[in-house]
């Protein structure tokens, strides 16, 4: 790619083990985080109320409150262990209360009444209440959606390209999903970040974007594949040699590099604007997509095509072996 | 492999001549669908209608229709149509975003208002969404579709009595209902009214084997009511609920009161006495004495006096009129967003969207110059067309939906970048401008098609399996991706060809000699 007069060329095939190494460095801590989450929360990520059941109440009181007092009121009303935090929405202080599932409406009414009598009138900005019964269902639906999406994508790419393209695209995609989930697992462990049903749609979008990005590179490889075996002059030695699949992949990645980076930049611009200026409600969701998009760009440039080359080379060797045997 | 299938050759022949026309048609359609200009008086009328509750609205519509000048000449069918139109206008009033108001423009005698009509979701307008589950009971051990129909009707009746004009009650799965109530002021009241079974029972005092008194069922319930209403009791601030039985109920009630003269009848709502104590809660069962029957009541009317406040009496009468739920229900999920938070979200998403799209436009302009300008114009068309489709379908726009839309802007630009990069390569290879653009398009198309097809697969699955939030996101993203294919192929291409060649493009100067060979090649 060319930036002003600077010509940038990446040799993906030559340094493939470096690229794989970076990916490992990104995914291994994430996988450890996921494993620790499994141990701690019995789920790969810290599940939010959408999956466990529970309530999040966001109330805006007229005067600033002491969080411990709010906690006490909740405890007196049968909601011990509730998390109470302050947040700011449009510059105004909001009390965010996370409690266990309130299945009985009369408890909610009692809580509201005690809050009002202790701290004065308030505005309920938002109330999210999920009973424990619905969580596993949501998770099941989410996983089912994930599996169906993957199967359909493998089908589509195998139809339009070949199975090995589909396989490599899916591996690159798993890379992105693991990076994203890994970061959120670590955030869940260290900062208590929870994932909700919006996170599942963020993951699915990242899947869409990752494959979208990979396909653009693969499309170029497919187009250039006819040049495999054509003669090319080696720049260093000046000797003529046949172009390998690796050379083609290298050229293709470099031809699409500008596009990959520009596209990611535009998507990153829009997402960053949403993260910085958008509502609080979607911030985690947007951050998840941001991570996914950046990882998706990396994996489609450095992983997917490397893997394809590696796959083809292995097959070539097998063929050679079979021929000589 | 099917890779030798050339979608471009098929499509390009289709697109060859009517592309510029299609762009203009889409632009015109988008503008007219997106924006409406009507006299301010009329627009205010819509908004007034949408703020009424259902009974007010019904009587207002009835009055308006009967005041129509041709009312007497209209047949039944025409009257119905006129009524339906007015109800539609009230619906429209729920989703009006005023863009700007004009005071008597162009010398006309009226003020006009320009508005858009996007349907905003609960998280943006404020409101409550409930997920209800019907639970099997002793009498109804299985939730059959018939039972669910009953539940749906009762819930619908109850919500309508709340005066929420645009509620949606939707069946979800075998035993669930989704209730959406936009703009509701008191969600707790709504939940209380929806959540209770509202089974009114009459009982008589009887003694069990040990001689202990208990309340015995007499087989007369609120189902036997024709209607109930709340009324103040003379001289006090206390209310009572008067009721009227259906014929069968009146007969049964007559027989019962004849038999029990001088004795007590208990009235129970969902198993609790209807009498209220000083705290407004039902009195405990052990303290409840019932009402003494002074004389047989044969007229089929009666009253429930239970120390009710006005609200309690009204609430009970609404519930009785709406009917009892055949089975108890449970609120599985509640999502309530206050109007303040909603407005905050709208403002923030709007500014985030504008900043995001603005940054992308500046980027495109910096990187590509004149063609970047073209891409930006295509992006404006894209934004208009997508919003117009949202408004026409209509798509309910939620916060997640807006995120999906803004993401699709990024993907729409991607198509342009792919095409531009390809065109640049062709120019570098020495092709003329015209040919470079055409080849750029045809070569980029397979990548655009395949990558968008995959995004659409993800969207499709989300639409089928996702929760309502996720669905909102998937729908907007899918529409966005589909529209971006159109704008990239038609609008960008048409406009690129409109740029005077002398200005050059992508850093390549116009060369007369090449243009000549290009025309030869093109022929």
Q: What structural category characterises the helix and strand content of chain A?
A: alpha+beta
Total number of distinct structural domains of chain A: 2
Elements of chain A, N to C (H/E): EEHHEHEEHEHHHEEHH
Which class of the largest domain in chain B in CATH terms? Answer: Mainly Alpha
The Cα radius of gyration of chain B reads 33 Å
Taking all Cα atoms into account, the compactness measure Rg of chain A is 26 Å
Describe the largest sheet of chain A. Answer: 4 strands, antiparallel
Number of strands of chain B: 17
How many domains in all of chain B?
A: 4
Beta strands of chain A, count = 8
Global mean pLDDT of chain B: 80
Q: Which percent range fits the helix content of chain A? A: 55-70%
**CATH third-tier fold name of the largest domain in chain A:** Multidrug efflux transporter AcrB transmembrane fold
- Termini separation of chain B comes to 32 Å
CATH topology description of the largest domain in chain B: Multidrug efflux transporter AcrB transmembrane fold
Q: Which residues of chain A form runs of ≥5 with pLDDT under 50?
A: none
Gross morphology of chain B: elongated
Relative strand content of chain B: 15-25%
Largest sheet, spatial ordering of strands of chain A: 4-5-3-6
* Percentage of residues in strands of chain A: 5-15%
CATH architecture of the largest domain in chain A: Up-down Bundle
